[in-house]
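U., I forgot to send this yesterday:
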Amino acid sequence: MITNWPLVFFTVFSQLGAGLAFFSWWKDRHDTAPSSRGWQVSAASAALALIASLIAFSGLASGAMLPAQICCLLLVLASAAASRRCAPCGLAAWLVGAVCVMAEAAAAIPGDVATLSGIFPLVLFPLCTIILGAVFSQLRQMGEADDPAVRYGRFYMPLRICLWIMLIITAIAPCMPWEDPFMRKSAIIWMQTQLYWMGVIFSGVVLGLSHMGRITLLVQAIVAFISIFGLRTAFYADGVHGIIDMSTLYMH
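Result:
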């Protein structure tokens, strides 16, 4: 299979930036002394994603990926401004991040949006965004207080909910005899793809680690990133959501 690695990097790191922007905005509204570290990492992630997109599309993209690319640029600028205590920029950052993620999902729809193959990326991509944002935002390295009285990470609840949903849909997807021809073809390939199952298993590992306390927070973040990176690589390289005739990218 042909893997467009810059496209994988673009979607994963832009979703990391968007997720961090949302949780950093939430912390700015609820903390007395919010840290700018989340905004800085959000801007850096989005910048890396933007560079990857320019490589993936040899410049500007087309179709739904063009607004995703534009919103990724806006995410870089808004997150950088929010790190300097620009309150409206924080709201703008996670909003353009959300548009970026949904545009990426729309570009990955192989047929009709009202089918299972159309709904799948519209559900999967936002889940990945929330998981990445939650698991990294609760790290001490992001400015979170290392309070022994707090047994789990600060955002363990949205993290666990989204992990459970992602685990269920990604584990079931290869096992069902779908009537949707695009979903059926992807399911057959995913069933035989080790990288896909690694992503599924690792999401379950993160769930288990989230019940073991704050000592595992950094490991949770690393394993969650590997899980989503593996699933995304399989999504584009080993499923008809990302390719035509198993070699050419779908770009709506």
